[in-house]
């Protein structure tokens, strides 16, 4: 059993106290409140108190035994889109503070019950105090509206003074009619003073109200809100994130895959859209040119690996894997004879592209596989899982040659160096690492990103590395020294795909639906294939 920490034991003691107070409060309400407060809220209060008492008692046991502090797995490194997900490294449990909150809520509920609905015998019971003065209250309030406080103690003096004050007005009223009947001039002289205080009073408030009305609503001119800058769009562009890019061997065309399920072909020389190459049943993940440049192989979350014609997008063959979940990534051997798909189920499948058959089905990882790469000679494959595990495979036999925990979080990008001696990986721990395949040791780490490194591409000469990250940037590196050469900023959000053009230009794609082309040295942006209108 996991040993409880001192802080958990203290929280457990607090939760136990809260449970006891809840039960005691409920019993007091049940004993005295049922007769004194026959309201509809009593059953609800009892149910709440008993319920919180039981929950607090359970929280006390959970905290005291140390179960709340057992570590849980962290799934924060799972991909940000698609169904690929899984709990990864262990991290501390959030239960202790949550259980402490339960105890605090229970204590507050008891306090609210005692103060808001106290029994009649306790001091401060609001209903009894309010009812006592209610019966004698109306007479004094009716006899003396202006000053309720004095009316309570000196009742006789107040009553004595009130009649004279009220009797004084009647004599003048009785004396006024005689002068009016005998002598009109004096009556008129006495009438104005009596009428003026009453007549000017309504006349005076009226002008101020009329005078104040115009300033309250003065005329005004309202400026329209600022217009947002226009965003460039392309009707044929992607409707969602661009997650994969691959340049044809001759460098003339570019193929892209998107979470909008489509595969598109672009002309890099003329910087224009060429055609759609097809649609997956679920989001597309990978699109790769085969040698000869007449076919592309695509994979997606529907679990299908589809061979398509570049000329018109016609489907030539479907390699289906319905029992292994979606195909996260895909790699093709340099000779175009083998393809390897890695799946959300942790399965690795080696396909024979010539004979259209399955070579190996390997249960390679315990978690969803998020990266795959094939060595330049086509004999080895590297796979990486979302738990940070890396495995090196012999493609011919389907056997693992080496396995090691390379990253603290998932590995989402992997590329071999041209000589096949090293492999480069990018991860959710923000690091890019270079591994010696002969020894399995890390030889260099490239730091600079502050978000998951989601994609990697290596220049044709193997000297420069391009990385795309969820931090919204792409970065260019000198692989030999590990020095950062340039930072590419311009995407509105994560960068999911990177590639090198034949002329050394840099190509990036991201969540903003755009594909951008940059100078080879990482300078200004040269062109952009915009996304479709929203």
Question: Class of the largest domain in CATH?
Answer: Mainly Beta
Any idea of the CATH topology of the largest domain?
A: Methylamine Dehydrogenase, Chain H
**Portion in beta strands:** 25-35%
Poorly predicted parts: 72-78, 82-92, 119-203
> Could you tell me the radius of gyration in angstroms?
41 Å
Q: How many structural units, i.e. domains?
A: 2
List keywords for this structure.
534 residues, alpha+beta, Methylamine Dehydrogenase, Chain H, 2 domains, four-stranded antiparallel sheet
Protein model, in words:
With 534 residues, the chain is of the alpha+beta class. The chain has two domains: 6-73 and 92-131, no CATH class; 242-529, 7 Propeller (Methylamine Dehydrogenase, Chain H). Helix content is 28%, strand content 32%. It has twelve helices and 30 strands. The strands form eight sheets. Strands 3-4-5-6 form a four-stranded antiparallel sheet, with no helix packed on it. The chain has a four-stranded antiparallel sheet with strand order 7-8-9-10, with no helix packed on it. Strands 11-12-13-14 form a four-stranded antiparallel sheet, with no helix packed on it. Helix 1 packs parallel to helix 3 and helix 2 runs antiparallel to helix 3 (95-116). The protein starts with 5 loop residues before the first helix and ends in a 5-residue tail after the last strand. The model is unreliable at 72-78, 82-92 and 119-203 (pLDDT under 50).
């Amino acid at each position: 059993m996991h040993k409880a920490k001192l802080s958990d034991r203290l929280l457990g003691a607090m939760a136990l106290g809260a449970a006891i107070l809840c039960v005691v409060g409920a019993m007091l309400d049940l004993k005295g409140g049922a007769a004194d407060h026959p309201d509809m809220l009593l059953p609800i209060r009892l149910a709440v108190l008993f319920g919180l008492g039981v929950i607090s008692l359970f929280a006390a046991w959970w905290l005291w035994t140390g179960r709340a502090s057992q570590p849980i797995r962290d799934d924060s490194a799972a991909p940000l889109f698609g169904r690929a997900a899984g709990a990864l490294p262990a991290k501390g449990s959030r239960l202790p503070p949550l259980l402490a909150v339960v105890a605090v809520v229970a204590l507050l509920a008891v306090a609210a019950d005692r103060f808001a609905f106290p029994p009649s015998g306790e001091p401060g019971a609001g209903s009894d105090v309010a009812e006592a003065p209610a019966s004698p209250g109306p007479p004094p309030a009716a006899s003396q509206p202006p000053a309720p406080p004095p009316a309570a103690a000196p009742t006789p003096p107040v009553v004595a003074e009130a009649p004279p004050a009220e009797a004084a007005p009647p004599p003048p009223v009785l004396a006024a009619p005689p002068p009016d009947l005998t002598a009109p001039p004096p009556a008129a002289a006495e009438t104005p003073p009596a009428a003026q205080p009453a007549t000017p009073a309504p006349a005076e408030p009226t002008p101020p109200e009329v005078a104040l009305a115009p300033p309250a609503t003065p005329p005004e001119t309202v400026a329209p809100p600022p217009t947002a800058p226009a965003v460039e769009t392309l009707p044929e562009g992607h409707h969602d994130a661009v997650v994969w890019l691959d340049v044809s061997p001759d460098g003339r065309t570019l193929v892209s895959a998107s979470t909008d399920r489509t595969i598109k072909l672009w002309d890099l020389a003329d910087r224009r859209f060429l055609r759609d190459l097809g649609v997956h049943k679920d989001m597309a993940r990978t699109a790769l040119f085969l040698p000869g440049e007449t076919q592309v192989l695509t994979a997606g979350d529907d679990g299908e690996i589809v061979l398509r014609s570049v000329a018109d997008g016609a489907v030539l063959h479907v390699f289906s894997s319905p029992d292994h979940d979606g195909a996260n990534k895909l790699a093709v051997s340099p000779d175009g004879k083998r393809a390897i798909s890695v799946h959300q189920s942790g399965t690795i499948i080696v396909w024979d592209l010539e004979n259209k058959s399955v070579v190996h089905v390997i249960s390679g990882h315990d978690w969803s596989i998020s990266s795959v790469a094939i060595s330049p000679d086509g004999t080895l494959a590297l796979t990486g899982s979302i738990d940070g595990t890396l495995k090196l495979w012999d493609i011919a036999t389907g056997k693992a040659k080496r396995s090691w925990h390379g990253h603290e979080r998932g590995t989402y990008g992997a590329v071999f160096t041209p000589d096949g001696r090293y492999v480069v990986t990018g991860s959710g721990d923000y690091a890019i690492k270079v591994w010696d395949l002969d020894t399995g040791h890390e030889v260099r780490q490239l730091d600079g990103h502050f978000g998951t490194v989601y994609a990697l591409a290596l220049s044709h000469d193997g000297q420069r590395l391009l990385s795309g990250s969820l931090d919204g940037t792409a970065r260019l590196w000198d692989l030999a020294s590990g020095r950062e050469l340039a930072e590419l900023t311009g995407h509105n959000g994560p960068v999911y795909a990177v590639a090198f053009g034949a002329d050394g230009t840099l190509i990036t794609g991201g969540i903003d639906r755009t594909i951008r082309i940059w100078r080879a040295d990482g300078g200004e942006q040269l062109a952009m294939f915009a996304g479709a209108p929203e």
